[in-house]
Amino acid sequence: MKKSSAPSLVVALFFIAIMIGCEKKSGDAVVISKEHIAAAPPTTETPNAHSAASPNEELRPMADDEIEVDGYVMKPEARGTSRDPRAWKDEQWLVKVRMISDARTFNIPAEQAQFNKLKEGDRVKVKYRVGKYTNTVWAAEIQ
């Protein structure tokens, strides 16, 4: 039996398009803040769960006891815990940096040892990719 190579071809073309659509950049940055986010507890998914918003659904205003972090709304006590909406199945150590050249600010995932060495105000070298059309930062790392 012959397997179709169409799915692998589509995946390969997708990654080629991403790489062509991004520019490699590097430069100096200043550490603004550091944040540890605990691992999310394992979840059991319901087979019929839908997360898409219905057309009649309206956005609610943010409550007085909520905060916004990186585009997510949460209770202040949930920040950095396993209940943080940014939590993944693994722990995260995020370093927020501001580029010196253009004042662009973004989070960079770091290893725990690197995270522990850095302090706010430290200057670091950063390599990252920027989308040519969206100007979004992808695949950033501290050197």
Quick overview:
The protein has 143 residues and is α+β, with helices and mostly antiparallel strands. Helix content is 15%, strand content 35%. The strands form two sheets. Strands 5-4-1-6-7 form a five-stranded antiparallel β-sheet. It has a two-stranded antiparallel ribbon with strand order 2-3.
Structural notes for this entry:
- A hairpin with a 5-residue loop joins strand 4 and strand 5 (105-109).
- The model has no long low-confidence stretch (mean pLDDT 86).
- This protein has two helices and seven strands.
- It has helices spanning 6-20, 112-117, and strands at 22-37, 67-69, 72-74, 92-99, 105-109, 123-131, 137-142.
- The chain starts with 5 loop residues before the first helix and ends with a strand.
- A five-stranded antiparallel β-sheet has the order 5-4-1-6-7. It has a two-stranded antiparallel ribbon with strand order 2-3.
- Helix content is 15%, strand content 35%.
- It has 143 residues and is an alpha+beta fold.
- The longest helix has 15 residues, at 6-20.
The overall pLDDT average reads 86
Count up the helices.
Answer: 2
Order of helices and strands: HEEEEEHEE
User: What would you call the structural class?
Assistant: alpha+beta
Residue share in helix: 10-25%
Strand content: 25-35%
The coarse overall form would be globular
Strand segment count: 7
Please give the order of strands in the largest beta sheet: 5-4-1-6-7
Instruction: Report the uncertain regions.
Output: none
Radius of gyration: 19 Å
Question: In this structure, how is the largest beta sheet organized?
Answer: 5 strands, antiparallel
End-to-end Cα distance: 47 Å
